[in-house]
Write a structure and sequence with these properties.
The protein is mainly beta. The chain has one domain: Roll (Lipovitellin-phosvitin complex, beta-sheet shell regions). 3% of the residues lie in helices and 63% in strands. Strands 1, 2, 3, 4, 5, 6, 7, 8, 9, 10, 11, 12 and 13 form a 13-stranded antiparallel β-sheet that branches. A hairpin with a 5-residue loop joins β10 and β11.
């Protein structure tokens, strides 16, 4: 079957990582800012999403330029499958806690959301951590001229394992996630997202028997910037956050 390219979506992306070790009085901050493009291509009954980002990184070790690539497939059964993950700083729209596109039924449910409902999601930092919490309605409105519905989310859970990009840094503690996602009313594409992850844990490096208390905060903000996007038809099956399990 032929491959059909749909209109690209352009985003501004920004973020910061904050590391604080109270016992040693240590504080460090890394900030990010840049742009990205999401390309969408129908491949038979599946849809391929490709996000490419260019950004600047400003941290204790100086300023640098970075790029990121993330490729994800929306399969005919409505599930998403990651194909390429070259996004070490978690800056692409595809490497965030929520699906890049919803199906029509889920969008309708979000528009009718009046109270909080339980949900669960895998940790955005990877690993086996599952965060459990609640969705509730947010304050919707236009995002770069496109009407959007907003959903607030908050969840938490235990986390243990290596920090992304720091194989020798092992943490064990508690993670909390909160933020807001905005989905377009015309085609249910994720237009904007602001999310904060806070990790309160004990950190060990090299010697598992020696650890120190640490608080790590990750913030990401992504927002669509193009006003020339024609809506694509809603699929009958697409992704969303996983429903809560008893």
């Amino acid at each position: 079957m032929p491959h059909i390219a749909l209109a690209d979506v352009h985003y501004d992306t920004a973020g910061e990582d904050i590391y604080r070790i109270e016992s040693a009085g240590t504080f460090s901050r890394v900030s990010y800012g840049g742009t990205e493009r999401l390309s969408i291509q129908r491949e038979g009954h599946a849809v391929r999403f490709t996000a490419r980002a260019r950004y600047r990184r400003d941290g204790p070790d100086g300023k640098s330029q970075g790029t990121a690539l993330f490729v994800q497939m929306l399969l005919p059964n409505g599930s998403f499958e990651d194909r390429v993950d070259d996004d070490p700083d978690f800056l692409t729209i595809l490497n965030q806690p929520f699906a890049v596109r919803l199906d029509s039924a889920t969008l309708r449910d979000l528009r009718g959301l009046h109270d909080r409902i339980p949900f669960s999601a895998n940790s955005p930092l990877g690993g086996d951590t599952v965060l459990r919490g609640f969705l509730r309605p947010g304050v919707g409105g236009p995002v770069d001229g496109r009407p959007a519905v907003a959903v607030r989310f908050e969840a938490d859970g235990a986390m243990s394992g290596a920090l992304p990009g720091h194989a020798d840094a092992v943490v064990s503690g508690h993670m909390r996630m909160d933020g807001t996602a905005y989905y377009a009313l015309d085609d249910a594409t994720l237009l904007a997202l602001g999310v904060t992850l806070t990790l309160d844990a004990r950190l060990s490096q090299g010697q598992p028997s020696v650890s120190v208390p640490v608080r790590i905060t990750y913030r990401r903000s992504i927002r669509a910037t193009s006003k020339t996007l024609p809506p694509a038809p809603l699929a009958t099956g697409a992704g969303t956050a996983a429903p809560a399990t008893p």
